[in-house]
Amino acid sequence: NEIGDLKFSLQANEDSPVSNPAFVIKNWGDNDVSLKVNGKKVFPGKGFRTGHIRRINQYDLVIWLEIESNSKISFSLAHK
Asked: Rounded to an integer, what distance in angstroms lies between the CA atom of residue 22 and that of residue 5?
């Protein structure tokens, strides 16, 4: 039972900046992910890493991004 596509944002500002966030999305499944940040597609590489955590009856997705911002960042994740 995998989750569907996911959209969310981080409300960063000068007092609370975003710096290299990591996310764990429970029950994503073992599918790869397509990522957009602020509407622009991001490709896997040095600044965007993914992996999966295998649980007894599910797979969780792990995402790490090399990104810093003092303003709102929007994310859109889709199954590949």
From this structure: 18
